[in-house]
Each structure stands twice: as C-alpha cells, then as structure tokens.
Amino acid sequence: MAMIGFPTTCVSQKILCSSLQSKPSRSNISSSMSVHHKKPFRPAREVEGQVTHSMPPHKMEIFKSLENWAEKNLLTLLKPVENSWQPQDFLPDPSSCEFYEQTKELRKRAMEIPDDYYVCLVGNMITEEALPTYQTFLNTLDGVRDETGASLSPWAIWTRGWTAEENRHGDLLKQYLYLSGRVDMRQIEKTIQYLIGCGMHVKTENSPFMGFIYTSFQERATFISHSNTARHARRHGDLKLAQICGTIAADEKRHEAAYTNVVDKLFELDPDAAVIAFAGMMRKKIVMPAHLMFDGRDPALFNHFSAVAQRLGVYSATDYADVLEFLVGRWKVEGLAGLSEDGNKARDFVCCLAPRYRKLEERARGRRETREKRTVRFSWVFDREVQV
Ligand SMILES: [Fe+2]
Ligand SMILES: [Fe+2]
Q1: pTM listed for this prediction
Q2: Buried b (16+ CB within 10 A) or exposed e, 209-238
Q3: For the chain, what is the domain count?
Q4: Could you say which of 115, 116, 128, 256 is catalytic?
Q5: Which ligand is located closest to the Cα atom of residue 124?
Q6: Is residue 67 marked as binding?
Q7: Is position 255 annotated in a ligand binding site?
Q8: What is the tens place of the pLDDT at every residue in 266-295?
Q9: Where are the compositionally biased (Polar residues) regions (predicted)?
Q10: CATH number at residue 117
C-alpha cells in the first residue's frame, strides 16, 4: 500500500434516483448467503492459529501495581459525560420544525462528494461500529480485564469509559450517512453484522503489553484516518461533515495519549518485556480492527476498501510507517540500554523497520503508477464502480 495523493478525477455519479437505491432482490440475498454459509452459525470469515496467554502470570503484578497510577493518569483522560459532545449536536434535530430543511441542506452538500470518499467514510464508520468486538478484545487482556462487567478496578473503569466514548463515533457517522442518502444502508448494516460476528484477530495473545501497544498504534491510525476524511470533506465544501470527522479525530488523539502513556510506564517498569512485545507485534504486523469485514458479496472487501483509502490518502502505507516511527520515538526505544539479548534484538528490529517500510513502499508506488487503473464495485455505494 502507498499514498499516491488525492484522486484526480471525481466519480461523476451524483444523482441517486430511487430506482438505483432499491433493496436487493430476494434471489440476491439467498445466493450470497448460500455461497458463504455452508454452516450458517459459523463466522463468515474464520481465523486459525490463535495463540493465548503467552504472558507469564507473574507479570500481571505489574498491572496491579499500576492501579494507583492508572487512577491518576489514565482515568483523568476520560471526558465526563456532561462535558462530552453527543451525535445529536452535529445532526438535524428531529423534534425541530427545521429538521426537513436541515436534512435537505445536508443531502445537497452530500451530493457534491464522490463515491470513493464515501467508501472511505463508510469503511471508517463500519470500523467504529464493530465496537462490541473491541470491548471484548480489551477484556481478553490478562491482569486488566473487567472481571465482573461493573468492576471498580481503574483498568475496567477505563475500558468501559473508553467504550462509551467510542460508541458515539459509529453512532454519529452512521446517522450522518443515513441522512445523506448516498449509501446503501442495508448493505452497510449487513457488513456490520458480519463483522461483529467474525470478531478480529490482532494476535495480542491476552498480553496487556501487546494489547496496549496495539491500541496505541490503532488510536493514532484512526486519528490520522478521521483527520484525513475531515480534510477531504472540507475540500469538497462540506464543512459540517469536516467538523464531524474532526471531532471524532480529536477523541482518537486523546485516546492515543492515554494508551501511549500506559506503554510509556511499561517501558519504564519492564523495558525488556515492553520492547519484546513491541517487536512481536510489528513482526506479526498491526492489522486493522476491521480486517475481517465482509458484505455478503466481496470476499476481498477489506483489501478493496484499504486500496481506496490508500489512493485517496485517507490511510496509507506511509501512514503506517509514520505511526511506527512516532511510537519508536515516543517510547525512546533507540536509547534503551541494559536489555537482555532478546531485548537488544527486539530494539534493533523495531528501530530499523520504518525506513525498510518506506523503501518497500517507494518500489510499490512505482509499480502502481505504471499499472493499469482498476475499478471495483462496492455494494456500499449501490454497486457502483470505484477506482482502487
Ligand atoms: Fe473511534
Ligand atoms: Fe479511539
């Protein structure tokens, strides 16, 4: 994947007449189900080779010892509900007599935005909507999980508070997209249902070392991605949508600060375990949380969505290298001393990785530029073709 800048052409299909938006036929629905569901109770995409509980149990004490620290330094990065924005703050008010006028204006602005942008926005929204998976994921981590569902351990309070904040992201984007009339909501809802049913496989092995390194990476990645959809919305003249994406991006930035602070602390208390976990995650590669997405039709949906995001510069291979480089600097990995042999190897590995990615990316970009342009049909935009 590589960032190749902004798209130079806009998809011209702006007019969405009701005939284009008709619901999929019964035969469409049944054929997609029969192809992908020999056993309908199994996830649409299954994952093998899952490793569990690789962190030695005694390391859990580190997280117990950090509870006071977490109370003062982690929970303070949650925003009180009363000071928090809510999706309704950015959407037409359904109880107001101005609702229809405001919605009409929203839809008029939405008409000016090309399909490839919507593919990115929908992909981001679907990623946010799989939130049950992410809360489950955080509760797989040994030593920090919410043991009861209402635990008063600071780790558990953080996880629930974080989830509650994140819940607004998918809500806001989904309601905006519903009102825009530009996307096939039924196909999008199907994708969300499939995705939550599939879960995610980010290979953190129940280890909070790996888990918090993953979330640090992810929060920064989502900050970049939402910031870029904000930037593009502004370019297309939709300042309200830009504000929506920018507001979500600001939350992601605060979450990034929280998770990177936790990992900072881990580097301070157990640098060897922290750097080995960091290298382990990078060797396995940080997969995006929605990597198992499926819409009932396109088995390569995530790759296609990623290719559009890459082409538009919403999230690219260059961003991946940038995030890695940022985290290496943030956790002062290069200067780590007194490590074990494995720790030294891990440090050297992560410090050399970003320049290697950049070289590979440069070559890949050259190949892409000479390659013939390709399009893919996205069910999210009524099966219209979008360049990947
Ligand atoms: Fe989010
Ligand atoms: Fe976030």
Answers
A1: 0.90
A2: bbbbbbbbbbbbbbbbbbbbbbbbbeebeb
A3: 1
A4: 128
A5: 1
A6: no
A7: yes
A8: 999 999 999 999 999 999 999 999 999 999
A9: 24-34
A10: 1.10.620.20
